[in-house]
Amino acid sequence: EDWGYKHDEL
Amino acid sequence: MNIFRLTGDLAHLLAIIILLLKIWKTRSCAGISGKSQILFAIVYTTRYLDLVTTFVSAYNTLMKIFFLASSYATMYLIYIKFKATYDHNHDTFRIEFLVAPAFVLAMLITHAYTLLEVLWTFSIYLESVAILPQLFMVSKTGEAESITSHYLFALGSYRALYILNWIYRYVMENNYDLIAIVAGIVQTVLYCDFFYLYVTKVLKGKKLQLPA
């Protein structure tokens, strides 16, 4: 699960 | 961060600033759907819970705080400060018909069954349809002020630019999130009819008026 991607985008 | 993502974020920021300025300068929220603004506040609240768990960058934190704060400020202007100008007779969309299905769908199709993950997914689904009460209001009254049209155009462009960002990320970083992509496409498609009217009417100096 790519959490970084999820937190980064608005 | 790539150019599509950045311009998407800036379009989103611009949309919110246009809306707040319009309400503040005219001292009126006529033509603005309070229901859509409630939905946006729910969207940001459920998506940006990660503000307290994860730090990405100052940019990321500031933007999230701005989107959260501005959505609550907009609700305050519509439902409290300029309540007398709120056109509630034309803002009759039942938001539970959007919130409930978005929640059910988030329970059915999500990456993981954790509270933050399900709420993130819910916010993505809800955002894709959150503009419907506003579009419904425009179709009901048959017109929109130019400034409201500019707001809608900037707000619609933001997710369209995100789609380009997702294509870029897929090609350059082999990174993608199917839930965000499908919802983002749905969201953008909902604006298509409006985009057409915006380009053919508003940009030519005419008021956005639907045929009777």
From TrEMBL, chain B:
Which keywords has UniProt assigned to this entry? Endoplasmic reticulum, ER-Golgi transport, Membrane, Protein transport, Receptor, Transmembrane, Transmembrane helix, Transport
Listed GO cellular component terms?
endoplasmic reticulum membrane
Membrane disposition: Multi-pass membrane protein
Tell me where the transmembrane regions lie.
65-82, 94-113, 119-139, 151-172, 178-199
Q: Name one GO biological process term.
A: vesicle-mediated transport
- InterPro entries recorded: ER_ret_rcpt
Q: Where in the cell is it found?
A: Endoplasmic reticulum membrane
* GO terms of molecular function: ER retention sequence binding
Where does the protein principally reside?
endoplasmic reticulum
The Swiss-Prot or TrEMBL record describes its family as follows: Belongs to the ERD2 family.
Q: What is this protein called?
A: ER lumen protein-retaining receptor
Q: Which organism is it from?
A: Asbolus verrucosus (Desert ironclad beetle)
